[in-house]
Each structure stands twice: as structure tokens, then as C-alpha cells.
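Example 3.2
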Amino acid sequence: MDNMIIILTLISGFLVIYHHLGYPLILKLFKKQSAQLHQHQQQQQQTNGQSVNPPAARQYTCSNKDNDLPNIAIVVPAYNEAQWIAEKIRNLAALDYPSGHLQVIIGCDGCQDKTYAIAKATAAEPECAELAITIINFQINRGKIALLNELLPTLKCDLVALTDTSALISIDALMIAANRFKDPKIGVLNGHYRLLTPGSAGEQAYWDYQSEIKISEAALGSTLGAHGAFYLFRRELFEPLASDTINDDFILPMKIVAAGYRADYENSINALELEKSSDDQDHMRRRRIAAGNVQQLLRLKMLLLPRYKGVAFAFISGKALRVLMPFLMIISLLGCLLLASHYLLFLALAVAQLMLYGLASWQLLMKPKQSNKVSRLLGYLVGGHVAGLIGTIRYVLHLDGDRWTKIN
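Structure, written as C-alpha cells:
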């Protein structure tokens, strides 16, 4: 019996360490190798007299080359977004992209506030006059997935950009994206997600870490999913989503990857999140993401197959282990506690885990104003795994609905 407990404890502990430390280190090595290869290719292009970095931005100056640009449709799903919708529309009107190749569709999904009225008034402002914008006021809130499934098949464009109402996009984002999509292998393009006002230092550190992970995943062959704040994909590759889809910004891109295309990352495209999350909002959001992680693991299990190579490795090491992580952490701790009285090694491991979880609990419960970066990050990570545990259990037990609602 002891042998079985020892094996389970050691495997669980190894996977916890691998997911948090080993996997990021492997990604870092791949990123470094990819950067060296890219630099070598650039040197070869320079030697052959080829342009290494063709200019992407036209600085609001029209030219005949505009005719060669892809048609882009920006779709903004909105539910009770009165606080942000005006600035969002003004931001879209300021994007450096020829108006004849750009259309904006805002879908007000049964809003109960003044989102639609504010959107109409803002679209009529002089600075938005050249923006080809359509604002649709759906009377009934059916959920984000129903909205996307209705709107996207009707679009006549080359590229679709999905973006959150509370995220502002860098003005040259579309020109950069158009340049990147010249590569026919790219099916999805991610931008860099940034927070205007982080809810905590731990949240800021987490998203900085996630950005580095996405850059490194791209070096393996493809980023995993996208961030709903802003990403683009080829319109022809869209397939309607199941009505109960939770993490649409993962399922949609990864179905495109499963079809043989690459999801890439562009650090020079920025999506700036205006909305500051409270602890309660962040917890609820992470619970929902965790439920989505379980769902996407089941629905995209084909990506675990060896033929997907780097994508399969990243999917297993990143997303699959993230689903299992709360349970592995519990098994590791309980196993060490059970074995502590018989083995000095497991006693030391149990004490180490209890100290780490105690520090994280102090950070989460007491919310001290004076604390170091390590304890803040540890608290944010452990808090995320607690939310993940709750979200996973609630999804398995079918305790949550499938309708898209704004987290307040």
C-alpha cells in the first residue's frame, strides 16, 4: 500500500513542478532557438538583397497599394457595455487602415443598459464619419456564441477580428496583421494583451508570464488559443461553434489549428484592457475559464495525438495539466502527509508544501499592503488553482448554465 502511495505522490509532485517550472523552461529554450533561427534567416535575406521587415504601417497616407490589402471585419459582441462602448468605437475609428477595406459590426446582445443608444450616438460623431459601422440591437440576450454563429457566416471579408468592448487596439494593429497574413500558413494571429490598471501585482505578473508563454508556444509551431481582447483569423476557416461553448477564444482558434493552420503571436499588436478586475470578478472569470479548460480538453482531444507534434506537447503540458493541477496538488500534499511519519524525505516535502500554501493563504485572505513579489505571485497562482478546482467540479456536475453573461 505504501508503495502505491509513494508512486502516486512522487508522480503528482513531479507533474506539479514540471507544469510550473519545467515546461516554461523548455518553452524558453525553444524560444531562444527559434529567435536564433529567425536571425539567421534575416541575415540570409539581407545577403540576397531581400527586404527583411517590409513596412506595415502607412501612417494614414493612402496609396495604390491599399487595393492589395485584405478586407477586414471587426466584430464586437456587447452585453451591458455602456461604460466602454463609446471609447471602443472611437478607438476603432482611429485605426490606421483604409476605410474601404474595413467594416465594424457591433452586436448588442439584449443589453439592459444604454449600450445601443450610446453606440449609435458615438457612431454619428464627426471623427467616426468614415467608419463603416453596423450596430445591431438584438432584443433578447441569447449569449455570445449564438451572436457569433449568426453574424460571422454573413460577413464578406478576408479576415475577421474579434475584440472585447473594454479593450483598446493599437492604431497600426490591422496593417501589421495584414502583413502577417501574407503567410498562407497562418490561420490565426494573436496580439499582446496588456492591463491598463492591474487588479493586483500578481495579476500583472501572471499576464506577463502568459504573454511569454504564447511567444514560446509559437516557436513550437502554434500558440494555444487566443485572448478575446483581440485576435484575427481567416474568415473562410470559421466553423459554427457548439451553443454551450465556454472558452470560444480557445475552441475557435484551435479548430483552425486542427485543420492544419498555425496560430501565431505578434508582440507589436497591443490590446489594452481598460476594465480593472476586482478579486471577486477575477475569481469568477478564472472559474469559468477552468470549466472551459475541461470542455476544450474533451472536444479537442485530437490535438493530443503525436501527429500534431509541438502543438500536442504544448496542449498536454499546458492545458491538460492545468485541468489536473488542483487534484495533483492535493494528492501530492496528502501523500506527503501520510508518508511523513515513515520517511524523512516526505516529511520535508510536506513541511515545504504547507509553508508555501500557508504563505499563499495569508496573501489571499489577509491581502497585506506590504508583501514581496514572490508571495503576491504565489497567492495569485494558488488562488487560480482554487478557482480552477471549483470551476472543474461545477462543470463536471453541470451546475453552471451556458449563457454568456457579463461578470460584475
